[in-house]
Write a sequence for this structure.
């Protein structure tokens, strides 16, 4: 690989003046950040946020607040790396760390992503089941819809399609408003740390789950590949950061709404919450059919965005590593491996959901544990790449304060994964306390 | 001149120059011996954890 000489340095480009050109420019850049963060509120997140609300009321709302800067800083590194290199994350790891580390990273990603896609199908089937759709039909419809989303031959069309789905994330809000929760108490718990029942293992693992579901390895791979496919450039970094920040707000609002919803419905009652779609049924009895239906649509939508994002992350990564065309701007005949990987992930995941007596809830829980375990290692590689001065140059490389923030985050994530490991090895290690 | 060697000291100056993508450096990122073995240790730890999660999954699934 030889050193190339830069041939394009256009000094004539000036920033757009006037609000309309600026608005157009913002709209042209916004996309990958909002999509990746909305995909964060997927079926696994629905399960976890609602469990947190049902079991602990508003008491764990505070966990979401520190996750706002943590998620932003992790993904902001992806923005810089993607805009600067124009390459996906899997390709970057192979180029800068070699195939030994590259194959490990790819293997981790493919396994966790595939398992996550299974959970998305579980949620979609449950959501469509609310409307009386049979599981086999919901799997078939989901595969057809998700394949249609990416088969337009243009990244921009996929992005528009995905951005249309983003507002559906907020369909849980009418149900929240209808329940008339105590907003003041909820807002207070968002800013105040409380550990219900002390530092007991149940709370610790729910917190680990909340962290693991809010920052997941697929997000890093997806966003960088999406930025590369969209062909964002170095000068687009500020607006790509804005895009990411808006996406973070979407996650926070979605998580806040789900925790408050489940807390208001179940906390302090004798009704246990066993699965996310149960909320739709209970909302029908409590507030009316429309609210239950809106919640079910939001759950289906979460599964669709999560499914497309995870499948795309796999397809992009495998194509980048194989060094074959892997872009939504290519047709099926131009990028067969890319589209076959995408379709294969969907078909296999859908088939697993249809296996009779498959332990679907256990799969969902295990996927969250896997994601929480793999995340710190993924962020270590990301942080090493962001300290690669030869690659990024003096301006875009991590500043010392960014390294302090990022390494603190990595230590925190490792600490949480170590607790998870300890509990997995010895389930009785931590004494149980009643909550 | 490589993109990353452009005469820009701040991000604003860099954006004003509107450079193309950075030029890929030759070869791999040099890792110190400590960094390399830390990554190996992390990898072993990760594989062990993944194994544990799969084991737990199998135990719970078998128990129904």
């Amino acid at each position: 690989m030889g050193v190339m000489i830069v041939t394009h340095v256009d000094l004539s480009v000036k920033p757009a003046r006037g609000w309309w050109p600026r608005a157009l420019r913002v709209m042209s850049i916004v996309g990958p950040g909002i999509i990746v963060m909305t995909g964060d509120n997927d079926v696994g997140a629905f399960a976890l946020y609602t469990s947190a609300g049902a079991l602990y009321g508003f008491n764990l709302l505070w966990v979401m607040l520190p996750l706002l800067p943590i998620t932003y800083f992790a993904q902001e590194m992806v923005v810089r790396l993607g805009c600067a290199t124009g390459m996906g994350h899997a390709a970057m790891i192979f180029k800068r760390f070699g195939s030994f580390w590259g194959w490990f990273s790819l293997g981790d990603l493919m396994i966790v992503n595939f398992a996550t896609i299974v959970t998305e199908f579980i949620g979609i089937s449950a959501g469509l089941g609310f409307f009386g759709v049979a599981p086999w039909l919901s799997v078939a419809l989901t595969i057809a819809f998700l394949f249609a989303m990416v088969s337009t031959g243009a990244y921009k069309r996929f992005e528009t399609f995905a951005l249309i789905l983003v507002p559906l994330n907020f369909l849980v809000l009418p149900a929240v408003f209808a329940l008339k929760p105590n907003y003041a108490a909820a807002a207070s718990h968002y800013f105040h740390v409380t550990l219900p029942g002390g530092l007991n293992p149940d709370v610790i693992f729910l917190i680990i789950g909340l962290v693991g579901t809010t920052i997941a390895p697929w997000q890093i791979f997806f966003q960088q590949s999406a930025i590369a496919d969209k062909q964002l450039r170095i000068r687009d970094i500020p607006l790509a950061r804005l895009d990411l920040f808006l996406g973070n707000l979407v996650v926070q609002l979605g998580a806040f709404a789900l925790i408050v919803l489940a807390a208001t419905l179940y906390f302090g009652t004798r009704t246990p919450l066993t699965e996310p779609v149960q909320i739709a049924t209970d909302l029908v009895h409590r507030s009316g059919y429309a609210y239950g239906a809106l919640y079910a649509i939001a759950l289906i939508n979460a599964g669709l965005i999560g499914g497309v994002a995870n499948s795309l992350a796999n397809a992009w990564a495998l194509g980048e590593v194989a060094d074959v065309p892997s872009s939504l701007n290519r047709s099926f005949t131009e990028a067969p491996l890319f589209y076959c990987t995408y379709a294969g992930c969907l078909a296999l995941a859908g088939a697993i959901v249809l296996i009779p007596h498959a332990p679907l809830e256990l799969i969902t829980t295990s996927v969250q544990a896997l994601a929480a375990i793999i995340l710190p290692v993924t962020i270590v590689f990301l942080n090493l790449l962001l300290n690669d001065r030869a690659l990024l140059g003096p301006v875009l490389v991590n500043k010392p304060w960014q390294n302090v923030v990022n390494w603190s985050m990595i230590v925190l994530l490792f600490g949480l994964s170590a607790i998870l490991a300890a509990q997995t090895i010895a389930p009785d290690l931590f004494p149980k306390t009643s909550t | 001149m490589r993109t990353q060697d452009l005469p820009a000291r701040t991000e604003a100056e860099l954006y004003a120059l509107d450079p193309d993508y950075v030029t890929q450096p030759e070869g791999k990122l040099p890792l110190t011996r400590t960094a390399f073995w830390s990554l190996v240790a992390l990898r072993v730890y990760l594989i062990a954890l993944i194994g544990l999660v799969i084991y737990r999954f199998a135990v719970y699934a078998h128990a129904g």
In short: Chain A touches chain B through 54 residues (CB under 8 Å). Confidence is low (pLDDT under 50) at residues 1-13 of chain A. Residues 30-425 of chain A form a domain with the Amino acid/polyamine transporter I fold (CATH 1.20.1740.10).
